[in-house]
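Quick one, probably user error.
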């Protein structure tokens, strides 16, 4: 196992944000833009928001944005990015598997590359949070690497989707290759859009 992978997750990500990690492209993906075009602006929450690129995009389209990330360094970069773009946002350091944001609900919850990092226990707590945070009629958009045999738990499997579908309705799901600015190959990955039906429960 590489030395970096032995460090606590928060520290691992903070170290990555000392530079510009490969996922930090500064560009919002068409999947998010498609969601933005299809639903009225409301309250959005970005889980594992990184340096805030998607928070800026959402704010530009009239959304009230909240971002949370484990890495303090990314939170500081995201706050600066939002400030420079002229938007106010609530962006804080926190673990998405913890009991954050009590009593708050969001019309859109975005996760690009956070859920697939979590342990099985963390995923279960994340789903409980998602069920509490996503408002009735709300949209959950997730991008995740698929599980590879050479990784202990990184990546998603069919069981993860089944667990989401126990309380969300799948709108669409699409295989995707990882997009890297250098054009290099990455993990096989997947996009999925879910809705929390008003009458689902
Ligand atoms: C692959 S990066 C993607 C960042 C951002 N969504 C983007 O697309 O640029 C994953 C992010 O999730 C954050 N993260 C990982 N585990 C987390 C957790 N348990 N709670 C909150 N954030 C977490 C990392 O610090 C990192 O910023």
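Nope, works fine. Designed sequence:
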């Amino acid at each position: 196992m590489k030395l970096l992978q032995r460090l606590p997750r928060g520290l691992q990500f903070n170290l990555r944000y000392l530079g510009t990690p490969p996922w930090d492209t500064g560009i919002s993906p068409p999947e998010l833009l498609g969601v933005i075009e299809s639903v009225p602006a409301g309250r959005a929450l970005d889980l594992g928001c990184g340096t805030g690129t998607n928070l800026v995009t959402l704010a530009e389209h009239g959304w009230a944005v909240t971002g949370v990330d484990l890495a303090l360094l990314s939170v500081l970069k995201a706050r600066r990015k939002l400030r420079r773009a002229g938007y106010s946002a609530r962006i804080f350091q926190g673990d998405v598997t913890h009991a954050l944001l009590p009593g708050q609900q969001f019309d859109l919850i975005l996760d690009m590359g956070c859920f697939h990092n979590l342990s099985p226990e963390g995923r279960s707590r994340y789903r409980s949070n998602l069920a509490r945070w996503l408002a009735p009629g709300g949209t959950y958009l997730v991008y995740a690497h698929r599980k590879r045999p050479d990784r202990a738990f990184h990546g998603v499997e069919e069981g993860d989707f089944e667990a989401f579908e126990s309380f969300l309705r799948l709108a669409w799901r699409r295989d995707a290759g990882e997009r890297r600015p250098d054009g290099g190959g990455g993990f096989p990955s997947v996009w999925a859009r879910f809705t929390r039906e008003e009458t689902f429960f």
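Residues 72-85 form the longest helix (14 residues).
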